[in-house]
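Progress note, sequence design subtask.
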């Protein structure tokens, strides 16, 4: 008997996998990766419990869910119900190719009031297309029996009845199972971050056709909306400056102050001469040049480069443009 575990790398998914493995079931972990959550932590957690793990790129269908979630968003741009349903549907579609019989998750009834209440868990299972094959070992005794339990693939009496937001039962179970290396409960999804969500909402509203690397750009720097289809990303330190330079595309413009230390600035979208001047002023304002001083800013583009001479203004002059 084999099962697929939708594996986040958090303690709950680690425990769910171990509980089912203890019943003699072969478990393969699946991590669905997108620009909003990385597989790094999941790989460490899988290694800690010696769980085989497959990382699956879910970017394209997940972006569609983020744009148009049937069940809306959480506190920010996080469409948790639709996201979980998508992952379970993809896992269900992989059952045959992986030679597995059912899917398991680390979801706990009531742990997240909006996305893990009884109704939400039922919606997620139904919309996955494989409702009878979704096992939630940590809360199974509080939920309707699934096909794996009815068929005897797993023993229901060896599953658990965890509920609520507390983590003491999970931590005690981890101690008994000798699981010591697990992450804190802080979420790893960028869509729950208010600032990132604001930037993503701005991107959706102004630039419906964008590249995946633009989402990577949203993870660093200060962001400014300077035109209907034009924005700037301003590096805050050397590491971010290097990241921005590496992510800049052939159509993007790069701004940098010539004579003093300052940020690397990437401009995305079409810039008129007036917007070029504005971008140069913002670049100068975050440099070490003196206020009121004329500063040379180099503008590098695919067709060559040029220099603009601008006065350094206080940063506060551009606060209304910040995303």
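Output:
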């Amino acid at each position: 008997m084999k099962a697929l575990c939708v594996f986040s790398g958090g303690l709950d998914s680690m425990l769910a996998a171990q509980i089912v493995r203890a019943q003699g079931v072969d478990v393969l972990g699946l991590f669905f990766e997108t620009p909003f959550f990385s597989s790094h932590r999941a790989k460490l957690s899988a290694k800690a419990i010696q769980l085989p793990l497959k990382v699956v790129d879910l970017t394209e269908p997940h972006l569609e869910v983020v744009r148009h979630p049937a069940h809306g968003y959480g506190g920010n741009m996080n469409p948790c119900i639709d996201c979980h349903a998508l992952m379970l549907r993809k896992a269900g579609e992989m059952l045959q190719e992986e030679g597995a019989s059912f899917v398991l998750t680390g979801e706990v009834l009531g742990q997240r009031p909006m996305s893990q209440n009884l109704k939400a868990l039922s919606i997620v299972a139904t919309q996955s297309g494989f409702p009878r094959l979704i096992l939630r070992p940590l809360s199974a005794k509080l939920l309707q029996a699934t096909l794996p339990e009815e068929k005897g693939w797993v023993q229901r009496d060896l599953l658990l009845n965890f509920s609520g937001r507390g983590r003491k039962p999970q931590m005690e179970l981890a101690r008994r199972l000798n699981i010591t290396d697990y992450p804190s409960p802080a979420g790893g999804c960028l869509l729950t971050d208010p600032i990132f969500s604001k930037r993503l909402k701005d991107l959706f509203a102004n630039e419906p056709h964008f590249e995946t690397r633009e989402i990577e750009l949203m993870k660093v720097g200060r962001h400014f909306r300077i035109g209907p289809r034009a924005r700037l990303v301003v590096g805050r330190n050397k590491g971010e400056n290097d990241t921005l330079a590496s992510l800049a595309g052939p159509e993007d413009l790069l701004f940098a102050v010539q004579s003093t230390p300052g940020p690397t600035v990437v401009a995305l979208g079409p810039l008129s001469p007036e917007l070029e001047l504005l971008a140069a002023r913002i670049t100068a304002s975050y440099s070490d040049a003196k206020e009121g001083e004329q500063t040379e800013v180099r503008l590098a583009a695919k067709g060559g480069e040029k220099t603009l001479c601008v006065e350094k203004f206080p940063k506060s002059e551009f606060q209304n443009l910040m995303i």
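The longest strand covers residues 26-33. Work on this subtask will continue into the next period as scheduled.
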